Amino acid sequence: MASSPKAVCLLSGGLDSTTCLALARHDGFACYALSFDYGQRHRFELEAAARVAAALNAERHVVAKIGLDVFGGSALTADIAVPKGRSAAEMGHGIPVTYVPARNTIFLSFALAWAEVLESSDIFIGVNALDYSGYPDCRPEYIEAYERMANLATKAGVEGRSRVHIRTPLLRLTKAQIVTLGHQLGVPFGSTHSCYDPAPDGRPCGACDACLLRRKGFEEAGIEDR
Predict the structure, then answer these.
(1) Distance set, CA 128 to CA 16, 55, 82, 160, 210 (Å)
(2) CA of 94: how far to CAs of 55, 122, 134, 192, 215, in Å?
(3) DSSP label at 150?
């Protein structure tokens, strides 16, 4: 019997990345989960990522420490207030201060390096282009461009031995559709963490963009958020 293909799955510990990991597992991949300690103020997500990786039987879970807080420039990595109580219209306009410069480019580069070591052709990332907060590195054209670059940048790609695929199964789903999919896959929603500005004990603020989008998704899906 052939062994399962390996995949590197970017895992923040949030709703989207957890559902993406569950879907990769469901589709028969042996999943290698990759999280980042990048100096984010919401480091509780790393504890959530560890819980999720264990619950979903990841082959291995690695946390890479990269420290993007040395640059700052984001409400997630510097002393900048996290926006609260924004309307859907406000969230759909412009790029918010919670955008971390080049974050997905950096994350995907680490995933690409690990995938090459694992001799894996698949990288999963839970980006979403519908119910999201305007991040430029969540758009389809960005993912397509990164995939083209990735196949120019690796030894396996240059030698023609394999082609890297950046898999984005949630890209065109609403948050409600993601919640519904996660529910169908048995995602442990209670183990996930979405808040950008949690209390010292990890409780979500309930008012940042991430909390509001999460609440909207569960309400529209008619599923209780545990």
Answers:
(1) 8, 23, 21, 30, 13
(2) 36, 31, 6, 27, 21
(3) H
Q: Which residue has the tokens 């839970």?
A: 126
Token code pair at residue 48: 């959530």
Question: Residue 20 and residue 27: Cα distance in Å, rounded?
Answer: 11
How far is the C-alpha of 123 from the C-alpha of 31, rounded, in Å? 9
Total domains in the fold of the chain: 1
- Residue 115 resides in a domain: yes
Instruction: List pLDDT tens digits, range 111-159.
Output: 999 999 999 999 999 998 876 667 889 899 999 999 999 999 888 778 8
Q: From CA 54, how far away is CA 43, in angstroms rounded?
A: 18
Is residue 107 assigned to a domain?
yes
Q: What is the pLDDT of residues 47-76, one digit of tens each?
A: 999 999 999 999 999 999 999 999 999 999
- Angstrom distance (rounded) from CA 23 to CA 4: 14
